[in-house]
Amino acid sequence: MNRHEARLLRRGNPWLHALLRASRLAPPIGRLPRVGWLVTDPVLAREVLNDHRSFSMGGEGGVGHMWGQLFGHEMAGLFDGAAHTEVRTAARDLFTEQAAAELVERTQGAHHRALAARLADGREADLAAETRVLAGRLVADLLGLELGAEDAPYAELFATGERLASLALGTTSSTELPEGKLAEAAELAGRLTAAVPAAYAEAGADTILGRCRELGFSLDLTRGLATLLAIAGTETGASGTARTVALLHDSGQHRLLLREPSLLPNAVREGLRVATPAPVIGRHVAADTTVGGRRLRAGERVMVLTYRANNDAGPFDITRDYIPQTRQLWFGAGRHLCLGAAVARTQVARMLETLTAAGRPWRITAREPARRVLVPSYRSLRVRLE
Ligand code: HEM
Q: Any signal peptide, and if so, which residues (predicted)?
């Protein structure tokens, strides 16, 4: 593991860092007392994520369990079964490559142009802060919020989402949220979705909120879905972008990318593989089953260590070919495969275009990891063009 990446994991989530270190010598699937089953092998990981009969999100150990406590049974029911298929099908055309390109350009294009000009001028930029504002701009659009031209409200929006996600930090051993945390989470979700009722009433059917209305979803369910989108897409996207920038720099491969711009999609893929911003995916065992020769019992819990499964293929290398074993495991697999994958890839690519626009390599002048966050990330990553 690159030493900067190791530091991000240690500072961001010491428990996760220890788990990932301990799992270096772990078998493809094994059992850890008080935690549950750990899966480290990419092929077995996909087997678990594709087996929707034996593994669910809704029970203890799954993310649906937490969201159900926040937004009610209707919301919990959306993670599994027919309701989930219905939502995915209805939202599909809003998350295609084309839709992602339009969304990123509409919400981030002007910001990127200004950033490219500042960098070309020889000025320094904190790319971690920039990615938070950019993620905030994108999410504001999805939430129907109109926050104006300045950066600050978008950074604040990001911070609200980050606080909401961090409430889940203490839930690595259980996904049952205590009363105090529930009240705080409900307050934060209320702030994030302040504009949802108005947008729900008026938004066109080509927006997420308008689409929820057309589908007959209740306002509460729509608020829940909007919050889920805001959380799913912010920290992961910001983390993946800043870390890809740092990995390119630390490996010296930013110079190769400048010489061979056609490697940009590879750089995005490798950055997301090595960073794996969602390092663990939890599932509840819904029915007895066998994985990799081990017998898993209903009611147990599985943690798919995607970070380990992705990183065992080797260090960051933008000349590396697509890896058939891992595929896109950083976006999960199966029915819950990241809905925002195209948005995420486009965002990272857009940042790399901004950084390479002037044709000069960048230098990292200072950096600081974020502390106690759900998604390991940079708090600051100061960059200047050479
Ligand atoms: C680098 C950035 C991102 C990474 C690494 C990432 C990763 C993931 C992963 C691993 C899952 C599956 C979780 C599971 O199976 O339990 C997921 C689901 C999801 N992601 Fe992303 N994500 C990213 C960005 C985004 C963005 C930008 C959006 C929205 C604009 C988004 C929206 C979603 C949604 C809605 C789901 C739930 C899908 C479902 O349950 O059907 N993600 N993401």
A: none
| Distance of alpha carbon 330 from alpha carbon 320, whole angstroms | 16
Question: Which atom of ligand 1 is nearest the CA belonging to 237?
Answer: 2
Length of the chain measured in residues: 386
**Closest Cα to residue 278, out of 170, 376, 378, 165?**
376
Q: Using CA atoms, how far apart are residues 102 and 12, in angstroms rounded to an integer?
A: 32
Provide the domain count of the chain. 1
Ligand 1 midpoint to CA 346 (Å): 14
CATH number reported for the structural domain that contains residue 230 in this entry: 1.10.630.10
The rounded Å distance from CA 228 to ligand 1 centre is 9
Cα of 374 vs centre of ligand 1, distance in Å, is 14
The Cβ of residue 90 has, within 10 Å, a number of other Cβ atoms equal to 15
Structure-token pair, residue 186: 């409900």
CA 112/CA 352 separation, integer angstroms: 10
Distance (angstroms) between ligand 1 centre and the Cα of 66 equals 16
From the CB of 62, is ligand 1 less than 6 Å away? no
CA 344 from centroid of its chain's CA atoms: 8
The answer to whether residue 371 sits within a structural domain is no
